[in-house]
């Protein structure tokens, strides 16, 4: 008898020891976990010696330990990899549901249909009574000789129990007929499919390797903790030590929580308090939780043991402005928002802090401070419960760049030399002077201007422009005069009579429809013009009132030397007469002729090309080349018809051996041409109806890869990555708009050019202005983008309505898809449409820098990101606003890199 009693005592002790559940680590709420040592607080085991701070289930074990669901083995071990028995799972589930006290009311001598250890009897009896487990289901397996309670719980059995504990039996019934997505679904018991599907849908369980569920697999103690922790959010009944509500107050010693009943409860913060984020299960500092965030709190004896941030959306109404005055006797605060003055009532228990959360007295807030007034929308009371002093009144003299001008709000934002953005009011008026000391109107101040400015109590009092920003605008007007040296243009604006004079930039472009290479000499007094200005200098002139009509391959009928009238027959057979002028350009072959030589070479029936403006001949040349698009083609007969630039259809004869030169293929023939190709035909000098050679014409935008000034060789690639190498034989083929020079040396690496090819020979190379920098603002209505470029300047770029934004392989045409701080590269395509490419940012760790190869090596990441990068030729490497050399980057340094076209365009040191 004594032996039986001792045996029974040993079994009860073993059963008690078998009851283990999970828990976390003790550390302070605001600190990272640095220890895995065990701790016991208020009778609760809060951490275990064998569960490290980096264990994958640490959060879930910590949560269940604080709830008292798990206590552990001797030596305060949790043994997370041990399997859990069915009777242990029942106890854990009932404790999670807050039903342990109800379960213990069951009689220990209740007769059960299954065999369990004595300690577990009241829990199992209550589980049968409540319907968590079913008698017929549990006694169905007669092959298993292990006692029912001591059996290792399977994954499918745990799924069933947890779903029933949550009251989700109806969901399981609905999911029973839905096919499983797991590859081993055939291994499930016939009853398990609905429970497993429901558990997956509620995100309680996940699959294993190879998209399997392993339904008969055993459940470890760490896995069981995770199942119950994830199930907690679906519970309808839970422990009375759990509070779910909104954070209404917080210090380093306590938190205040508004619960579902509308009651506000205080809980103490101790060194054992732990805080987690529900989004990603990471440990976070208590300071990460903001006022009115939704939180889940486990407390014991008024102490918060476990806090979980479940929703970071703040339930606040915020009004920000400049403090006018606080009327403490009436508990009213007055703030200025733009041109409006607003009054708000203040609650008696209002809290006042600075931007860092440090407490302030309400009487210490100085007028002129930038404040945020906050009201909790969860409460019916409209009074302000918190005042945050975001910025004390500022009085200073500073230097910076104008970042934005908000006339409606009477505010100007500056980018200061420190790299910070500062906004100040202009409500009392501000004096603006140029560097010469001349007073100007505030409306003349521009975004991008470099300035010094004076501030008194947050209000601007004076601004001095030290350097004007590049400013572009468009003017419509009529040409009145052009100086003899072609440096000054005088116009009257459309709708006005006042004269306006503008300097003309070097290499300014002139566009006249129908004239491929117009210049300032082709402008005429009275022309209606569209002028593109940069800093009040003309960089591009477009004639809008007339076009130059081109006649190609016309035949001379007669020329009257006295009247200087030339009569021609067009290809359609019509007759036209035009007047020659002293400034008419006369070309024969590659030579330019004087007027007195015209009649000698341009005889009757000579085929000529003419450019006509109104009734005057701008240029005449004997036809040696014709440009147009292929309209008809008979390669076998060697016949080709083109549509010329003037719209004429002209037919020519060639032969099967007529050479064809194309950029895309060596040894091309007429058979390689197709209708719609742009071509240049070289006409036979003896018989002008015959073609001696053909070259295709192609215009494209290319990125420069290699330049060789000694050989004048240029290697580029197009937008598809196709490589091309060619020679620019002279500088006359280079156009550098708005710049003083147009030399080969002006072509920069990693820059863009617009190249025109006749066959394989480059005919013209236009250097494009590429802007790279940081987006500071967008104006969707005006179609403008404000960029702080890598040189520190501010540029306002008009992109209009026709542009393309490329980012991470996607394409957008909405300016709103950009955001401030995006790093971008902006170029123009062949049709002058803006292409905005957004660089990809990432935070990385430096490994080393190769000074010979000019390559940066970065340490590997968990995502196997690229580790070796080259730099853009003009990459911006900096810390704050201070530029640094590439060699300044050292091992283990944290940086942010911005990558475009597989190269680094910017590195920002922390």
TrEMBL record:
Domain SLH: start-end pairs: 44-107, 179-242
Lineage, broadest ranks: Bacteria, Bacillati, Bacillota, Bacilli, Bacillales
Protein name, as recorded: SLH domain-containing protein
Keyword Signal included in the entry's annotation: yes
InterPro entries: Cell_Envelope_Struct_Comp (IPR051465), SLH_dom (IPR001119)
Keywords: Signal
Species name: Paenibacillus solanacearum
Signal peptide stretch: 1-29
């Amino acid at each position: 008898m004594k032996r039986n009693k001792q045996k029974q005592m040993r079994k009860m002790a073993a059963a008690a020891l078998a009851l283990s559940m999970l828990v976390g680590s003790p550390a302070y709420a605001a600190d990272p976990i640095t220890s895995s040592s065990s701790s016991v607080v208020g009778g609760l085991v809060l951490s275990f010696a064998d569960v490290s701070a980096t264990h994958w289930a640490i959060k879930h074990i910590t949560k269940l330990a604080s709830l008292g669901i798990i206590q552990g083995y001797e030596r305060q071990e949790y043994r997370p990899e041990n399997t859990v028995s069915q009777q242990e799972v029942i106890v854990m589930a009932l404790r999670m549901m807050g039903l342990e006290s109800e379960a213990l009311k069951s009689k220990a001598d209740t007769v059960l249909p299954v065999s369990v250890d004595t300690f577990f009897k009241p829990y199992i009896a209550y589980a049968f009574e409540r319907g968590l487990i079913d008698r017929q289901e549990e006694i169905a397996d007669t092959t298993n000789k292990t006692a029912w309670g001591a059996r290792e719980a399977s994954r499918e059995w745990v799924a069933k129990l947890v779903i029933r504990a949550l009251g989700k039996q109806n969901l399981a019934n609905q999911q029973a007929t839905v096919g499983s997505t797991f590859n081993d679904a055939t291994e499930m018991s016939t009853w398990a499919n609905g429970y497993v599907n429901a558990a997956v849908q509620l995100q309680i369980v996940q699959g294993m390797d190879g998209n399997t569920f392993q339904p008969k697999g055993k459940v470890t103690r760490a896995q069981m903790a995770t199942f119950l922790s994830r199930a907690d959010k679906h519970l309808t009944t839970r422990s009375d030590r759990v509070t779910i509500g909104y954070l209404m107050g917080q210090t380093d010693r306590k938190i205040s929580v508004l619960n579902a009943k509308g009651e506000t409860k205080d809980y103490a913060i101790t060194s054992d308090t732990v805080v987690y984020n529900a989004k990603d299960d990471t440990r976070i500092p208590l300071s990460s939780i903001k006022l009115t965030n939704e939180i889940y709190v486990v407390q014991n004896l008024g102490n918060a043991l476990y806090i979980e941030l479940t929703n970071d959306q703040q339930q606040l109404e915020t009004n920000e402005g400049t403090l006018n005055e606080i009327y403490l006797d009436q508990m009213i605060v007055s703030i200025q928002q733009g041109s409006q003055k607003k009054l708000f009532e203040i609650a008696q228990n209002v809290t006042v802090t600075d931007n860092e959360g440090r407490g302030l007295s309400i009487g210490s807030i100085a007028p002129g401070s930038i404040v945020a007034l906050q009201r909790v929308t969860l409460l019916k009371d409209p009074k302000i419960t918190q005042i945050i002093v975001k910025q004390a009144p500022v009085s200073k003299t500073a230097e910076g760049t104008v970042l934005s001008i908000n006339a409606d709000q009477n505010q100007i934002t500056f980018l200061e030399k420190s790299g910070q953005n500062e906004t100040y009011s202009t409500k009392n008026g501000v004096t603006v002077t140029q560097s010469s000391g001349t007073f100007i109107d505030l409306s003349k101040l521009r975004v991008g201007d470099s300035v010094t400015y004076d501030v008194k109590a947050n209000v601007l009092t004076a601004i001095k422009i030290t350097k004007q920003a590049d400013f572009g605008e468009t003017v419509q007007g009529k040409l009145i005069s052009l100086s003899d040296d072609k440096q000054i243009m005088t116009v009257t604006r459309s709708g006005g009579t006042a004269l306006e004079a503008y300097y003309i930039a070097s290499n300014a472009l002139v566009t006249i429809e129908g004239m491929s290479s117009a210049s300032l000499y082709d402008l005429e007094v009275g022309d209606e013009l569209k002028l593109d200005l940069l800093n009040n200098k003309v960089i591009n002139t477009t004639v809008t009132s007339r076009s130059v009509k081109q006649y190609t391959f016309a035949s001379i009928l007669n020329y009257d030397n006295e009247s200087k009238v030339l009569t021609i027959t067009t290809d359609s057979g019509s007759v036209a007469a035009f007047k020659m002028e002293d400034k008419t350009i006369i070309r024969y072959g590659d030579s330019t002729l004087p007027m007195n030589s015209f009649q000698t070479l341009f005889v009757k029936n000579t085929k000529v090309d003419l450019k006509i403006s109104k009734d005057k001949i701008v240029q005449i040349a004997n036809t040696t080349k014709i440009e147009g698009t292929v309209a008809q083609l008979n390669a076998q007969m060697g016949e080709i018809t083109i549509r010329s630039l003037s719209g004429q259809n002209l037919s020519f004869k060639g032969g099967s051996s007529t050479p064809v030169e194309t950029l895309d293929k060596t040894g091309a023939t007429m058979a390689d041409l197709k209708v719609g190709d742009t071509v240049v035909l070289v006409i036979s000098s003896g018989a002008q109806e015959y073609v001696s050679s053909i070259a295709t014409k192609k215009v494209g935008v290319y990125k420069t890869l290699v330049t060789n000034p000694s050989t004048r060789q240029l290697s580029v690639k197009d937008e598809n990555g196709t490589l091309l190498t060619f020679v620019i034989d002279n500088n006359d083929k280079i156009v550098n708009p708005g710049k003083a020079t147009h030399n080969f040396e002006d072509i920069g690496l990693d820059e863009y050019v617009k190249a025109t090819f006749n066959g394989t020979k480059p005919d013209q190379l236009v250097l494009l202005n590429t802007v790279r920098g940081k987006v500071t603002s967008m104006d969707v209505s005006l179609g403008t983008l404000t960029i702080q470029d890598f040189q520190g300047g501010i540029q306002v770029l008009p992109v209009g309505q026709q542009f393309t934004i490329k980012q991470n392989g996607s394409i957008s045409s909405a300016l709103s898809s950009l955001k401030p701080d995006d790093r971008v590269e902006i170029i123009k395509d062949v049709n002058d449409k803006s292409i905005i490419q957004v660089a990809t940012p990432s935070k990385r760790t430096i490994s080393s820098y190769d000074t010979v190869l000019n390559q940066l090596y970065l340490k590997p990441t968990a995502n196997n990101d690229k580790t070796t990068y080259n730099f853009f030729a003009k990459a911006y490497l900096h810390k704050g606003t201070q530029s640094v050399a590439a060699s300044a980057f050292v091992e283990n340094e944290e940086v942010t890199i911005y990558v475009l076209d597989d190269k680094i365009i910017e590195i920002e040191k922390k």
